[in-house]
Amino acid sequence: MLGGSKDGAPREPPTFIEMARQFVVGMLVMDTYLYFLHRYMHHNKFLYKHLHSRHHRLFVPYAFGAIYSHPLEGFLFDTVGGTLAFVISGMSPRTSIFFFSFGTIKAVDDHCAMVLPGNPLHIFFRNNAAYHDIHHQLHGGKYNFSQPFFVMWDKICGTYMAYSLQKRAEGGFEVIPSSKEWKED
């Protein structure tokens, strides 16, 4: 079940500290790969038109819109990104179960278009449903490429768009971009 080592002996399960390290490294690897691939898909007209535009037909994201994509895009984002995270982090099979389950839950939550008070994913991660909603808005294709965990690459590369939440008269909240540049686009 745990697989064997190179000499054929069964591997010991990773300690909690080893799993945490593998998890964090996997998150950083996946975020790095997905940020640059995602941004490139927006800047390359051919890739955007033939692959990524399918995902952006969703102006208002819904939960399972996270996986609404062209099959080749799904392979490049999910399979290649996941493989890189798994291999580079040295992730154990046990850690990978938690990592990929968490990543799927996070991606679905990021696309659910709902900001719920007390949602632990929104508390611990600035990259959340409101943040990603900016990216899916009409002029949002220039901003907030980071996914699925952190916003560091958007901040480092100048593609970060802050937002505020405004209470709607009809109930709920509306995500409003916080930049004058947005209004000029």
From TrEMBL:
One GO cellular component term: membrane
Presence of the UniProt keyword Cell cycle in the record: no
Principal cellular location given in the protein's record: membrane
GO biological process: lipid biosynthetic process
Similarity comment: family membership: Belongs to the sterol desaturase family.
Localization terms from the record: Membrane
Organism per entry: Corchorus capsularis
This protein's record includes keyword Transmembrane: yes
Protein name as it appears in the record: Fatty acid hydroxylase
One Pfam family this sequence matches: FA_hydroxylase
Entry-linked PANTHER family: STEROL DESATURASE
Domain Fatty acid hydroxylase: 23-159
Domain of life: Eukaryota
Transmembrane segments annotated in the record for this chain: 20-37, 58-77, 83-105
Source species taxonomy: Eukaryota, Viridiplantae, Streptophyta, Embryophyta, Tracheophyta
Any one GO molecular-function label of the UniProt entry: oxidoreductase activity
Keyword line: Membrane, Transmembrane, Transmembrane helix
